[in-house]
Amino acid sequence: xxxxxxxxxxxxxxxxxxxxxxxxxxxxxxxxxxxxxxxxxxxxxxxxxxxxxxxxxxxxxxxxxxxxxxxxxxxxxxxxxxxxxxxxxxxxxxxxxxxxxxxxxxxxxxxxxxxxxxxxxxxxxxxxxxxxxxxxxxxxxxxxxxxxxxxxxxxxxxxxxxxxxxxxxxxxxxxxxxxxxxxxxxxxxxxxxxxxxxxxxxxxxxxxxxxxxxxxxxxxxxxxxxxxxxxxxxxxxxxxxxxxxxxxxxxxxxxxxxxxxxxxxxxxxxxxxxxxxxxxxxxxxxxxxxxxxxxxxxxxxxxxxxxxxxxxxxxxxxxxxxxxxxxxxxxxx
Length: 333
Description:
This protein is of the alpha+beta class. The protein is built from seven helices and 15 strands. Mean pLDDT is 75; it is low at 1-43 and 115-160.
């Protein structure tokens, strides 16, 4: 079942009631500055943290076996005055949620920031909900001798978080049909074949614009105007990283009039979604051996005629249980 960002972020606000009754201070100069700066700032790091779910009274929710139910909230990682990394909970606009006393609501995190500009994230905590575990599990079977199957989780074998390059080689594995369909759908984002990039290069604004439209369409929300935070967090899910300066550059570099950023209201306006432009057949998948990274090789048949070969570096993640992967690098030929 799809989990929309609206529901996810609504849960994040609900969870904060466990700390105290919270409200957003719209009139403060600090919050205004954060809103204008936007969640895409290169000097900030954003992500999702697994936290206990709570009811309207602030009590932790448990399943029928008495185990605590968990969910994920969007957060911004900051370094406090003591040099400790804290995870500040964000609302649907990408602004910090605050308590009645004006202090930001925070949750526990294993992430450690070395500086405000450079970060090194630790391994994500595992969610204990059966629903999340089922949707993120990679059920795989070998197709011929010599193949290796993927595991639900592959731990890091190297002391590095560097995503592989599209030129790197791994060991052949086989995804389940469900996982293959997810990856296939992500590679079939309209007009995605116009841009190639390695993870170290950053995500091209054009690719992000088309991905944003695709992500918003799958939200299934009956609106043509979206809060900037919703769009930016959707992009964070799809690419597994911040799209630098997306709000300030999309109108000029997005190469589509279907999504436009309005700075006056800090919203994105969608005039229309995009039709299918190509279909992808997955030819080969390789495990890169660490960090849940995989190399996907496929063939794209263009609607306008012709074909392209695609190599993608993807990573299994928990930012969106219905998505399940992020696109770290693309090479179209």
